[in-house]
């Protein structure tokens, strides 16, 4: 008679599947490695507060305008109303909106920093996101500090706010232009994904443009473009590596090196 040992149940939450290589990787290892796959170097999408903790010196961040929330100018409704959707996203992410902004230090160098969150309505830019970016840019100009904006938006301009959202493209671009005309240093960091109206405005206007490895970057997504032009796209189209090769980016920096590289650029250029 053969006896088989009963297989123990695997505790939930110990493992996660990598979207890059498909491997099952130990979740704690991924978290300890700054949310990067140890097998293939795939950079997982992360919440803006996690990214903030990776970049800014401990206890140095002062958040600004944390309680701004969007209104509902169009009385928009699809499967749910816009206020209901915003409320759901707030509960899910713990954020009031798709961006946090404030003043902090990176290796003891003071900066103004803003980070969009791909988990809040895909990091899309509504009136609050645009207003916060404009304000943090003006504050950077007032205090004569470098400005760092980190983008992760797969939603572009937020359709639920219509033209009020589209207006933010011009508003943020104008604020960036005034800041640069005043001699300010602006560094844009593009993460996966950086698309739509965000990419067509403030995210692409920096003095130095950096991307994380293999980030998807563009206006429309590759599937939409391919279906529109009815042609096959080049291999790696709209990846950070493709854009670096074609002169759109200044550099690609792995997440593990991002803080050190930002500090180096600020020390050299500011």
From TrEMBL:
Q: Where are the zinc fingers (C4-type)?
A: 18-40
The protein in question is named Acetyl-coenzyme A carboxylase carboxyl transferase subunit beta
Question: Is Lyase one of the keywords UniProt gives this record?
Answer: no
The encoding gene is: accD
- Keyword set for this entry? ATP-binding, Cytoplasm, Fatty acid biosynthesis, Fatty acid metabolism, Ligase, Lipid biosynthesis, Lipid metabolism, Metal-binding, Nucleotide-binding, Transferase, Zinc, Zinc-finger
Q: What class of enzyme is it?
A: transferase
| SUPFAM superfamilies, per database record | ClpP/crotonase
Cofactor(s) the protein needs: Zn(2+)
Q: What does this protein do?
A: Component of the acetyl coenzyme A carboxylase (ACC) complex. Biotin carboxylase (BC) catalyzes the carboxylation of biotin on its carrier protein (BCCP) and then the CO(2) group is transferred by the transcarboxylase to acetyl-CoA to form malonyl-CoA.
InterPro entries for the chain: AcCoA_carboxyl_beta, Acetyl_CoA_COase_Trfase_b_su, ClpP/crotonase-like_dom_sf, COA_CT_N, Znf-ACC
GO biological process, any: fatty acid biosynthetic process
Subunit structure, briefly? Acetyl-CoA carboxylase is a heterohexamer composed of biotin carboxyl carrier protein (AccB), biotin carboxylase (AccC) and two subunits each of ACCase subunit alpha (AccA) and ACCase subunit beta (AccD).
State the species of origin: Candidatus Brocadia fulgida
- Provide the protein's localization: Cytoplasm
Documented EC number(s): 2.1.3.15
Task: Kindly state what the record says about how the cofactor is bound.
Answer: Binds 1 zinc ion per subunit.
**Which Pfam families does this entry report, sorted A to Z?**
Carboxyl_trans, Zn_ribbon_ACC
The catalytic activity, as recorded, is: N(6)-carboxybiotinyl-L-lysyl-[protein] + acetyl-CoA = N(6)-biotinyl-L-lysyl-[protein] + malonyl-CoA
């Amino acid at each position: 008679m053969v006896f088989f040992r009963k297989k123990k149940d695997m505790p939930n939450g110990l493992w996660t599947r990598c979207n890059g290589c498909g491997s099952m990787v130990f979740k704690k290892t991924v978290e300890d490695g700054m949310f990067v796959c140890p097998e293939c170097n795939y950079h997982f999408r992360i919440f803006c507060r996690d990214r903030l903790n990776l970049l800014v010196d401990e206890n140095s961040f002062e958040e600004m305008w944390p309680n701004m929330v969007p209104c509902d100018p169009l009385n928009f409704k699809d499967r749910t109303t816009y206020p209901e959707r915003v409320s759901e996203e707030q509960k899910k992410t713990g954020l009031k909106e798709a961006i946090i902004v404030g003043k902090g230090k990176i290796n003891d160098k003071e900066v103004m920093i803003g980070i969009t969150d791909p988990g809040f309505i895909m990091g899309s830019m509504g009136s609050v996101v645009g207003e916060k970016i404009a304000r943090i840019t003006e504050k950077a100009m007032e205090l004569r500090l470098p400005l760092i904006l980190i983008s992760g938006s797969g939603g572009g301009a937020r359709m639920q706010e219509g033209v009020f959202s589209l207006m933010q493209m011009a508003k943020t671009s104008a604020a960036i232009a005034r800041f640069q005309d005043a001699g300010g240093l602006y560094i844009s960091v593009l993460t996966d994904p950086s698309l739509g109206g965000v990419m067509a405005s403030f995210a692409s206007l920096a003095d130095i443009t950096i991307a994380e490895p293999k980030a998807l970057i563009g206006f429309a997504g590759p599937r939409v473009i391919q279906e529109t032009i009815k042609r096959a796209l080049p291999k790696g189209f709209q990846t950070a590596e493709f854009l670096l090769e074609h002169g759109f980016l200044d550099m690609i920096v792995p997440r593990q090196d991002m803080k050190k590289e930002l500090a180096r650029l600020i020390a050299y250029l500011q």
